[in-house]
Specification:
The chain is of the alpha/beta class and about 475 residues long. It contains 16 helices and seven strands. Among the domains are: about 100 residues, no CATH class; about 100 residues, no CATH class. A five-stranded mixed beta sheet has the order 5-4-3-6-7. A two-stranded antiparallel ribbon has the order 1-2.
């Protein structure tokens, strides 16, 4: 509106002016809410951290646990630092000794060997180096022998030798580069030629990955068959080109499934028609549609929901949104504070139940109060949480259950990073390769095992026709 239009509106009288101002005010409120929604990031919504703009100055700073102090980059106060430890001197490949040439006081020359009059322990410093890598090439020759009877007999090479021109360790290194380090096929070829001094074609790289997938198939099936028997599972999913990549985290292993759907049909395929354990997830509808047993709803998502509503409330000056979000967040912090006491061993399970009772009851009252809120986002969340109220507190009453789904989100993060580089798979075989490699490498991560050595054992067993090693 320019000045002339404003003056014309003013001259039109009280009623038209008031009506126009109210109209503008309503439009302003809508725009504020829209801006608040657009400004949401991983700290106040279910958006993943990878979707955040790293240069967004308005993004909320990371904070320490549940206090609102700004957290500086790097190691935090109380964090135990880590440094390289010296290996025992007898394990070193070479030991070089240095002695002072002359006395700092009188200038007299000092012995330069073990005859010196040493005092105290020597200062130790270790340098780790890699020599130029020279591949080991083994030629296998099958000879033919002529018998006295005139028959010519030829020797057969071992079956495992003829499966590939590249050995199990090199094959496993290539698989590890793809699964754990997200190196492309061309990047893998360059790595082999530059660092390993091995010439290899792109087709050979792909063939070795496919053979690794075949070797991992029985391991993958065994883990999938074990999932329905697990008492507690954390699950999550993320986009994967024209598919969805699902993760299921058990107590001792992680299973990935690449599927063409994000629906509950995937859960039926993986867990069977009925899962009898506790499912720890976010509030995605596929889980609630499939599972009729015990749920644990992720509290990390709840925190983001409360902060998101608070941001909308402050932008739109909505008292309902502000009070609801602040109340629920305050109660959440109280419950989490008691939970951390339990996790650190300061209180028992029965004390955990007792000390959180008042906060749980207060949260129920708050949700019930705001079910009919005029603020749509408040009403929607209050209704959903009130309906599934018991699913908020399974972690308080059952062993092995965490209040958040962080273990699944951390487990799937490397897959998200891989997706951003490779853009997913174009075939079913490629999708199977992806899920199997992720299953094995992330399970090894969970079990603190060396994934490369496990891959070597698996490929070796597959080529020699032996039973594959187990991750269970």
């Amino acid at each position: 509106m320019d000045r002339r239009a404003a003056e014309k509106l003013y001259d039109s009288g009280k009623e038209p002016t008031v009506a126009k101002l109210l109209e503008y005010d309503e439009e302003t409120e809508k725009l504020k809410r829209k801006i608040a929604q657009l400004e949401k990031n991983s700290t106040d919504s279910s958006k993943p951290p990878s979707s955040d703009n790293p240069q967004d100055k308005n993004q909320q700073p990371k904070t320490d646990n549940d206090n609102n102090k700004k957290r500086k980059p790097g190691g935090q106060p109380g964090h135990k630092g880590s440094m390289r430890e010296l290996i025992p001197v007898e394990e070193a490949d070479d030991v070089l000794h240095y002695y002072p040439e002359k006395c700092e006081n009188c200038g007299k020359a000092l012995p330069q060997d073990e005859t010196a009059n040493e005092v105290g322990e020597p200062f130790r410093w270790q340098v780790v180096e890699i020599e130029p890598i020279k591949p080991i090439i083994t030629e296998h020759q099958g000879h033919s022998t002529l018998c006295e009877c005139g028959c010519r007999t030829s020797a057969s090479l071992p079956a495992e030798v003829l499966t590939s021109n590249f050995g199990p360790r090199l094959t496993s290194i290539i698989a590890y580069l793809a699964a754990a380090l997200h190196v492309s096929r061309r990047g893998t070829r360059e790595f082999c030629e530059t660092l390993l001094n091995i010439k290899i074609a792109l087709g050979s790289v792909q063939n070795l990955l496919e053979s690794t997938s075949d070797a991992l198939e029985p391991i993958d099936k065994k883990l999938k068959d074990a999932l329905p028997k697990e008492p507690v599972l954390n699950s999550d999913e993320t986009g994967w080109r024209d598919r969805w990549l699902w993760i299921f985290v058990a107590s001792t292993f992680i299973y990935f499934q690449a599927a063409k759907s994000r629906s509950s049909k995937v859960l039926v395929d993986v867990l069977g028609n009925v899962y009898h354990g506790i499912l720890c997830v976010d509030r995605w509808g596929a889980y609630t549609k499939y599972h009729k047993g015990l749920f644990q709803i992720c509290w990390a998502h709840l925190k983001r929901d409360f902060l998101g509503i608070l941001k909308i409330g402050e932008a739109a000056q909505s008292e309902d949104a502000i009070v609801f979000a602040q109340t629920m967040e305050k109660l959440r912090k109280k419950i989490m504070a008691v939970w951390y006491l339990f996790k650190e061993g300061h209180i028992s399970r029965s004390e955990l139940i007792k000390k959180t009772k008042s906060a749980r009851n207060a949260m129920r009252r708050c949700l019930k109060q705001y079910i009919h809120s005029e603020e749509k986002c408040v009403q929607t969340l209050a209704k959903k949480l009130f309906k599934r109220f018991d699913d908020l507190f399974i972690f308080i009453f059952y062993e092995g259950v965490e209040p958040t789904n962080n273990i699944a989100e951390r487990g799937i993060r490397p897959a998200v990073q891989w997706r951003k580089i490779c853009f997913g798979n174009r075939s079913d075989n490629g999708a199977a390769l992806t899920s199997r490699l992720l299953t094995v490498t992330r399970t090894c991560w969970l079990q603190k095992r060396n994934p490369l050595e496990f891959l070597v054992d698996t490929v070796t067993a597959h080529r020699s026709g032996q039973t594959a090693p187990s991750l269970i």
